[in-house]
UniProtKB/TrEMBL annotation:
One of its GO terms (biological process) is GPI anchor biosynthetic process. The gene is Pigl. It is an enzyme of class 3 (hydrolase). This is N-acetylglucosaminylphosphatidylinositol deacetylase. InterPro entries: GlcNAc_PI_deacetylase-related (IPR003737), LmbE-like_dom_sf (IPR024078).
Amino acid sequence: PGNYYNQGEIRKKELEQSCLLLGIPASSVTVVDHRDLPDNPALQWDTQLLATFVLKHIEANNINLVVTFDAGGVSGHANHTSLYTALRYSNIIVLNLHPLSFLCLGCHVLTLESVNLFRKYISILDVPISCFLSRDALFILTEKEAEQARRAMQCHRSQLLWFRHLYMLFSRYMVINSLRLL
């Protein structure tokens, strides 16, 4: 539940507020509270355990598209990269061993492309580069959508340290997201 700084309940409420602002009702938000999946930017989560949680959630909710981080986790956050590893494990290795693989469930996975530091912080100036480079999906937000994304980020008050304010101003991820199929 985002309890790295003992703020799990606060962060859960912030997540629900952010999702609501984006049109996702609280009833559609699932927070996994498991002792082996602690919120810790330096800790890799257990691949098989996380894959099991994700696959069960996909099946129970008839999800047909998952958007997650790539191997770089955008910021290198170990929990983010763990999600990618678990989804890759589920999609490739489990395909032959487990009846709940993504393909069997009719679910596709898109991964958010991690870019180098220069591209990450040139905001809208990254549009020509992103358009030129190969990818499976490219989302460029309108001014209204970018403002909605900023408001959603601002719901996470407990995490809005000084550098996240700079992130909201300069990061391409606030306006441009390039994704690849897993």
